[in-house]
């Protein structure tokens, strides 16, 4: 995944304002990373990983948001109003927000089919691990899927929807992607914004596949090791009518951005006592015509 450093340096140095903040990167390791989503059996650690803090420059991308492309940088931004009144209402998310996001993704990507298969709410003030499904912001540099788990999760989710093997294989023979749709769901975000890296600045060896162990299955995600060439961006003070798209996987091995990376971070310009960030992210399959 080589990149033209002169082009990227030009993009990152167009007098964009920036903050310097700490990002948590995986410490290189010989073993495969393993993380349990629940309390593991006695004697087994919850995780075998270690992370190192790296101070990084994170550019404010608002002034060039129209120049950033999902298939080039691996993320994108748009404005989009929602009719959802209460994002903590599960039925409203599925009955109102899912159809809205499906239509939006078709318009943005040109996809012929969109399958929304998961969503996560984040609010550190009310997150209670083991008691509710609301999580705190994830402050480690990562990508939600790997070259392997993109296909594995697609087959699993399509089987759950009753598709036959022939229909599933026909879909997976064409290009498809996993795209997260990320939105703030309350007031303007002032705390724990999302940092996104230009996919072209990530080298393949920096994406480290690790097992994510659930009670009923094992997924696979990428942790990321440090490279000072990574170029980071964010959209400060996001409002409820603004959306970020994150490319987590693309079956096309050449051409478009295939994997990106992201992380929440502690913004040094956040006001003291800023309210906890409230956000929702959808995980979606986007199937292209060819």
UniProtKB/TrEMBL annotation:
NCBIfam families per record: CmcJ_NvfI_EfuI
MF GO annotations: oxidoreductase activity
Official protein name in the record: Methyltransferase
């Amino acid at each position: 995944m080589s990149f033209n450093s002169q082009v990227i340096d030009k993009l990152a140095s167009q007098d964009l304002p920036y903050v310097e903040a700490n990002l948590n990167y995986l410490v290189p390791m010989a073993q495969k990373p393993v993380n349990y989503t629940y309390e593991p059996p006695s004697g087994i650690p919850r995780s075998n990983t270690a992370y190192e803090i790296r101070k990084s420059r994170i550019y404010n991308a608002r002034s060039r948001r129209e120049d950033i492309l999902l298939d080039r940088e691996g993320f994108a931004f748009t404005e989009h109003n929602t009719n959802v009144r209460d994002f903590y209402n599960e039925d409203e998310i599925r009955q109102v927000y899912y159809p809205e996001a499906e239509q939006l993704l078709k318009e943005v990507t040109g996809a012929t089919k969109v399958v929304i298969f998961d969503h996560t709410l984040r609010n550190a003030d009310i997150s209670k691990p083991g008691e509710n499904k609301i999580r705190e912001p994830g402050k480690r540099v990562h990508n939600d899927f790997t070259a392997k788990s993109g296909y594995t999760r697609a087959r699993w989710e399509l089987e759950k929807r009753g598709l036959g093997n022939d229909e599933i294989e026909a879909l997976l023979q064409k290009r498809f992607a996993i795209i997260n749709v990320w939105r703030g769901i309350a007031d303007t975000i002032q705390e724990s914004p999302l940092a996104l890296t230009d996919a072209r600045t990530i080298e393949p060896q920096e994406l480290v596949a690790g097992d994510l162990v659930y009670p009923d299955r094992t997924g696979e995600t990428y942790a990321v090791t440090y490279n000072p060439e990574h170029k980071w961006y964010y959209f400060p003070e996001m409002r409820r009518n603004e959306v970020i798209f994150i490319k987590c996987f693309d079956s096309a091995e050449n051409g478009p951005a295939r994997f990106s990376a992201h992380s929440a971070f502690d913004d040094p310009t956040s006001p003291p006592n800023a309210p906890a960030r409230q956000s929702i992210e959808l995980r979606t399959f986007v199937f292209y015509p060819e």
